[in-house]
Amino acid sequence: MIASVTDRTILHVDLDAFFAAVEQRDRPELRGRPVIVGGAGGEDARGVVSAASYEARAFGVHSAMSLTEAGRRCPDGVFLPVDGRRYQQASRDVMTILRRFTPQMEPISIDEAFLDVTGSVALFGDGQTIAARIRAAVREDVGLTASVGVATNKLVAKVASDLRKPDGLVVVPAGEEAAFLAPLPIGRLWGVGAKTAIALADYGVRTIGDLAALPAGVVEGRFGKHGASLAERARGIDSDPVHEGDPAKSVGHEHTFDVDTI
């Protein structure tokens, strides 16, 4: 389908295994090894995994997993404490690169951001070209890899950026949003958590396309306004703009007690 003049070009840029990647960048001896950021591992470890390198993920280690479980799954993993100052500096370096291509940028965490590059196409090329230039600059200037999704809206761009990690680039042409989403598991859709997925399974929904095919009244009757929103997203519809300069919506902090509590 030919894109209309009103089509937006939105990028979602997501740094790969960010904390662990910074550690591997700064300590070459860790490259190729399973790196787990969060603290000292082992049977007596407290706390949770903040980030895991892709080598560690091969053992089933993931963020928010207890360090104890991570140590069981990956006994040869390199466990490191969080070094927030270095990660923040790396994030600032990447965000500086992103701002070279557009002032319309919405950071949504320390390691990811949306960009509206609709007005930048004449200067830098189409969305795919800009995405490729960003990935190259992040690699060459900061020493990290980023996965990028390119689409006409934030929803589809974010789903796309996650499909070919690490170091991936996925472009969804205008008009193909629904077809792109249709075969994907329903859990990849924004707003569908574990409980919602279970509820949708009662209606035979396993993929995003299954949800898109349901009559709108069925979804809205079961989930109310949230259901109406889900039905739109399943069809690849998302009009949310890139919010320039939005402050962080929340600040998280974790503390793990020395002994288990009830």
Give the gist of this structure.
With 262 residues, this protein is an alpha/beta fold. Helix content is 38%, strand content 13%.
Structural overview:
- 38% of the residues lie in helices and 13% in strands.
- The chain is built from twelve helices and eight strands.
- The model is unreliable at 1-5 and 247-253 (pLDDT under 50).
- Helix 4 (84-98) runs antiparallel to helix 6 and helix 11 (216-223) packs across helix 12.
- The strands form two sheets. The chain has a five-stranded mixed β-sheet with strand order 5-6-1-7-8. The protein has a three-stranded mixed β-sheet with strand order 3-2-4.
- Strand 7, helix 7 (154-161) and strand 8 form a beta-alpha-beta unit.
- The chain has 262 residues and is α/β, with parallel strands linked by helices.
- The protein has helices spanning 18-26, 54-57, 67-73, 84-98, 121-124, 127-142, 154-161, 177-181, 194-201, 208-213, 216-223, 225-234, and strands spanning 10-15, 35-37, 51-52, 78-80, 105-109, 112-116, 146-151, 169-171.
